[in-house]
Amino acid sequence: MDHTTQAIVRAARHALIAGEPVDVGRVAAEVGVDRSTVFRRVGRRDRLIAEALWETTEKLAWPASVEAYPPGTPHRAARVLRAYVRLLIDEPWFREFLHRDPARALRILTTAELPTQGRMLALVTGLIASEPPGPVDLAPDALAFVVVRVAESFIYADLITGAAPDADAAYRVFVALLG
């Protein structure tokens, strides 16, 4: 990503973290480019939001979760995933983003339409592959798919079923799947 694109994504991330909607015009003005530059560099608004969310995951949330449990920690993969799920559940700006436009948020985060889902699957596949095999005999990528869907079910429970999001319940399922 070149400097201008990084600045565009960073400005969008700052808007999200401030609990504000991502406005392409405001992002462009903040960076000192016009709207067409934002679209040319990143794409449409949903892609910009996806990139901003991913930057937060890649640079902050995922590393914090992984670093909390060094290799050799019992149930490491399950604990890392619980920490990540808890971060998302407890983060006010993220909850605000989800509730502002739930259909858009879930589309950005959980479908193949944008790169977020594939990138998350790759992170979780890498985590699973780095640990000893667990009780479920599935390839790491297939197991990652199941685990990510379980995580999403508990992170977005309030949007999907009206139930409270629950990192500890997710953890129990992760342990059953991953050991």
Automatic annotation (TrEMBL):
Pfam families referenced in this protein's UniProt entry, alphabetically: TetR_C_36
Signal sequence, renumbered to the chain: none
SUPFAM superfamilies reported in the protein's UniProt record: Homeodomain-like (SSF46689)
Domain of life assignment: Bacteria
Residues of the QsdR TetR regulatory C-terminal domain: 75-179
Stated name of the protein: TetR/AcrR family transcriptional regulator
Organism this protein belongs to: Aeromicrobium phoceense
